[in-house]
Amino acid sequence: MAATSATTDTVAAAAAGGGPAGPSARRRWTGALDGALTVGRRLAGAAVSLLAVSVTGFFLFRVIPGDPVRTMTRGQATSAAQIAQLTKEFGLGEPLPRQFLRYLGGLLHGDLGLSYQYRTPVSELIARHIGPTVLLVGTALAIAVALGLGLGTRAGWRPGGAGDRIGTGIALTLWSVPTFWLGLLLIVGLAVGVRGLPGLFPTGGLDSGDGATGWAHAGDVAYHMVLPVTTLVAVTYAQFLLVMRSSLLDERGADYLTTARAKGLRDDLVRRRHAVPNAILPTVTLIFVNLGEVVAGQILVETVFSWPGLGSLFYEALRVPDLPLLQGLFLFFAAAVILANLAADLVYPLLDPRVRAG
Amino acid sequence: MTPPAARRPRTAPAVALVTALVTALVTALVTALTGAVAGAAAPAAPSHPAHRRVLTVAVAQTVDSLSPFTAQRVISTSIHRMIYEYLTNYSAKDASVIPGLATSWQASPSGLTWRYTIRSGERWSDGVPVTAHDAAFTFSKMISDPAAATANGNFTANFASATAPDDRTLLIRLKRPQATMLALDVPIVPEHIWKNVRDYASFNNDQSFPIVGDGPFVLTRYQPDQYIRLDAARHYWRGSPRFDEVLFRYYKDQDAAVEALRKGEVSFVSGLTPAQYDSLRHTPGITADLASAKRFFALAMNPGASALDGQRFGDGNPALRDPRVRRAVQYAIDRERLVEKATQGYAVPGAGYLPPRYRTYHWAPDPAHAMGYDPARAEALLDSAGYRRGPDGIRRTPRGGPLTLRLLGHNTDPQDQRAGEYIAGWLRKAGIQVDQSYVDPSTLAAREQAGDYDLAFDGWAVNPDPDYVLSIQTCAARPQTPRSAGATDDFLCDPAYDRLYRQQSEEYDPARRAALVQRMQQRLYEDGYLDVLYYPAVLEAYRSDQIASIQRQPLNGGNIYPQDGYWSWWSAVPGSGAADGAAGPWAGLTGKLGTGGGLGLVFAAVILLGGLAARTVRRRRTRDERE
User: Fold this and answer.
1) Does the CB of A10 have a partner CB in chain B at under 8 Å?
2) Which chain B residues in 331-360 lie under 8 Å from chain A, judged by CB atoms?
3) In chain A, whose CA is at the least distance from the CA of B35?
4) Which residues does A149 contact at the CB level (< 8 Å), separation at least 6?
5) What does pTM read for this prediction?
6) Could you give the dihedral angle defined by the CA atoms of residues A247, A250, A251 and A252, in that order, rounded to the nearest 10 degrees?
7) Could A86 and B150 be called an inter-chain contact, meaning their C-beta atoms sit closer than 8 Å?
8) Contact A197 B154 (CB under 8 A)
9) What is the enclosing helix (H) or strand (E) of B53?
10) Strand segments (E) across B176-331
11) In angstroms, what CA-CA distances link B479 with A348, B153, B240, B451, B466?
């Protein structure tokens, strides 16, 4: 009994450089200062990354070939005067440095500019599309994490067993399936129905568009989400499974588990109470990285299922190229990832004292 | 001995965090699901009367704006046709000019003043009468405010003024005669609404619904990239539409749209690929339509790009400036086989610039002068131009290098690549090497704009009035400065063509104008810079159980969408299986549950039971191990 608590505790205690023995006040003070410094460094790092991203965002998309005015008016009756008017309206006639300064000035005021093709402020477009994306990708992430960790735990606990071989095999197969193709397959199989099997789900969209409100609408949206969420979960859960599996494999031979078994604990409890808590740490990073991508949307899934999220907005923006929209989305996506990483950095020491010591 | 704290291992925060993260996500999602999404999607949803008959159309193109002053995309202008009247319209029968908001019209003897009589007794959807003042306001705004001329300024550039001496009369004064006065594709907007708009450049007309209009439909709801809902107008002067509602639903993926049609979720899909058309052609309950072409597909040859001031730029192969080389290319291509191979036969071999659908203006060379497939002739022309074959069979330029032409096409369109392969093969036989490159549309546009190409695939959809597609081949359409955006299609600049263009643009006599337009096409054909290969058919399909009948334009062999007018949606007669809009979102689900949902339930139950069983087995096993 005592041995168990010692194993789990000593790692933490020793690493924390003080442990429960009661550190002196001075040491606690320097520790707090250290902590504040670390947080400050991380914050500064994130700020620098954000700044770099806002500058590169501007120049990056100007490398894309194509004149937005020309692409937008292609195939439509547009006179030279109209083309000149659009070029002026978009500010594309100005020299690049001036365009850049105008972009930076706008950023300082929180203004991301006006989308060329939607003729709407970029921030408004992002606000309009973020709900559906978070809903779709967030749900899929929650399910993928739960499924991946659950299956990964089982697989890592009995590596090489039938469950591991089949479970990991299926996960890896789905991981390597092209998202687009799987989506279409689900549409054909489950939305339209094949050979007597009726179509169970809608083929695409966020809702039926019949103006329902409240719970009826929520139910309608949930119904429309089934297939895109299934597609997303199927192609992403393998990463959580694999990380969890290998991390649990590392813990499997640890002494503290032997001790736990020696105490007479059921195998299930040994896994749940002792092995998993230690093995789960690496997945936290993975979840945070994915969390940053929740807002980035999923271009392929959103396109196949006509889901009106940020992914399909980005796809539409690339086709023009709609420079203000591209810049705005790029900045937004990058900021989300940077902030998620920052959050992971800040949360990690709280979870694992070994990190705190470093 | 064990302190209470040790019972819970120290690393538990990680587990707690993962759980917390997932819980937080789920909570946020539920909130989003019930709140944000539900709220956003329902601005003033009107209640549904029973048995609404809904015609659902699958679309993919994003609406650029719902303001008639800035909208340019096909989807937006098609919707404007449905919700606003224009002075004139194009008949479903043959796209000839028929009355719209104007019941009659007359040009002054000088041809510089046009008097339109505005239909009386019409009302906007908010009840305010429609008058000539609305039309005068619309055109005056376009004349005075450049932002209001963004979409249709090409029609009003020659206008001196637009006035309404009384409620029924609209007077338009021109700077010089303008042949398109009966083909002004300009939606007339209600003055009492639009006079309050401050900035025409940023106003998108998409904030308050229903949009006040006077067409056969009223736009009642719009969610960008999700759907556009149009309700039938009750008292439209030409008669109310038979469907209660037309719903444009977004399918960003065309294959998904075709599947939605198979299922009956949408009533109509347009822009099919030959493969999709073939697969739908034999599907029971679906009518697949092969309609006459609205566009031409051509091989453009770089004439040596130049700007308005004559400054040359780009790197077009000088060999193409020799008419014999261009003619050789024309003779080397077998159009009949090309149609068969590149479009699976769903096209008509081409020659004249305007497709045969527009019978008044279409031109075809007489057989004696047609430059049809004749490889020997191509060889002879290249020989006479001085391009002799080298030992490898490739002809040599005067400088001694191989005669190589670069061909540009879209990587988004498989037809480009198929056509490119065949053309490269035929030209190779004639001794010309072809370097093909297929790129995305904006890269292609950028290279064309810079004049950096030799051959490029080119295509334009043609309106009933040909003025605009003719204008893009004039000298004046070239860009202001090298490499800047211009209206030009292919940098063509032929003074003789330009003279004819100007004449037709001022010619009010239909027959004389048609003759001029035909001479222009002959000129293009003989010049050989724009080799029209074929006119690709429009492929579309609809559910015959949902739509009993629908008008094509032209009536004989025409298409359903897009049309010049609103004929298809206005005329469509609901079939026995027309989607019932009164059915709520759950109706679909519960309906399906009755038939197939049982399967899903059984499936879920099996998984649940299986999980429980596995758990029990495992528990027993670990207990055994322990003992």
Assistant:
1) no
2) none
3) A214
4) A240, A241, A244, A280, A283, B18
5) 0.83
6) 110
7) yes
8) no
9) strand B53-59
10) 217-223, 227-232, 245-250, 268-269, 286-291, 295-301
11) 59, 18, 46, 11, 21
Nearest of A338, A285, A329 to residue A310 by alpha carbon: A329
pLDDT digits (tens, 9 = 90+) for A149-189: 989 888 888 888 888 888 889 999 998 988 889 999 999 88
Q: Measured on CA atoms in the order A62, A64, A67, A73, is the torsion positive or negative?
A: negative
For B622, list phi and psi in degrees, rounded to 5: -65, -30
Identify the pLDDT of residue A286. Answer: 83
Whether residues A308 and B250 touch (CB distance < 8 A) is answered with yes
CA distance A308 to B224: 8
Specify the pairing of strand B455-461 against strand B404-410.
parallel
Structure tokens at B528: 């050989």
Task: Spell out which residues of chain B touch residue A346, defining contact as CB-CB under 8 Å.
Answer: none
Would you tell me which residues 71-110 of chain A have a C-beta closer than 8 angstroms to some C-beta of chain B? 71-87, 89
Encode B190-212: b = buried (16+ Cβ within 10 Å), e = exposed.
bbebbeeeeebbbbbbbeebbbb
Measured torsion, CA atoms of residues B117, B123, B128, B130, in degrees rounded to the nearest 10: -20
Choose the closest CB to B15 out of A206, A277, A306. Answer: A277
Chain A residues lying within 8 Å of B597, measured CB to CB: 200
Is a pLDDT exceeding 90 seen at residue A82? no
pLDDT in tens, B271-284: 999 999 999 999 99
A217-270, pLDDT tens digit by residue?
888 888 999 999 999 999 889 989 999 998 888 888 888 888 888 888 888 888
In the DSSP assignment, the letter for residue B37 is: I
Tell me whether residues A78 and B487 touch, CB distance under 8 A: yes
Cβ distance of A67 and B618 shorter than 8 Å? no
B432 Cβ contact partners less than 8 Å away, ≥ 6 residues apart: B328, B329, B332, B382, B394, B395, B403, B404, B405
Within the 238-297 window of chain A, which residues sit less than 8 Å (CB to CB) from chain B? Answer: 264, 266-268, 273-274, 276-278, 280-281, 283-284, 287, 291
Q: With CB atoms and an 8 Å threshold, state whether A209 touches B18.
A: no
Q: Say what the pLDDT of residue B19 is.
A: 64
DSSP per residue over B341-375, as a string? HHSTT-EEE--SSS-TTSTTT-----GGG---S-H
Give the model's confidence band at A13: pLDDT under 50 very low, under 70 low, under 90 confident, else very high: very low
Instruction: State residue B242's pLDDT score.
Output: 94
Sort out which chain B residues have CB atoms less than 8 A from A268's CB and list them.
618-619, 622
Q: Which residue of B has its CA nearest to A121?
A: B202
The DSSP output letter for B489 is: S
Contacts 24+ apart (CB under 8 A), B36-41: B36/A131, B37/A131, B37/A132, B37/A135, B37/A206, B37/A207, B37/A217, B37/A218, B37/A221, B38/A213, B38/A214, B38/A217, B38/A218, B38/A221, B40/A128, B40/A131, B40/B223, B41/A206, B41/A207, B41/A211, B41/A217, B41/B223, B41/B226
Which of B67, B262, B263 is the mutation pick for testing A, counting most A CBs within 10 A? B263
Which residues of chain B are under the pLDDT cut of 70?
Answer: 1-50, 579-627
Q: What is the pLDDT of residue B594?
A: 37
**What are B323's two structure tokens?**
């008419």
Report the distance separating Cα A106 and Cα A122, nearest Å.
Answer: 12
CB atoms A114 and B153 under 8 Å: no
pLDDT reading at A299 higher than 90 = no
For CA atoms B2, B4, B8, B14, give the dihedral sign: negative
Backbone angles phi, psi at B433, to 5 degrees: -85, 135
Cβ(B140)–Cβ(B148) under 8 Å? no
Q: Which two three-digit tokens encode residue B376?
A: 């020997």
Contact predicate B162/B172, CB 8 Å: yes
DSSP tag of B483: T
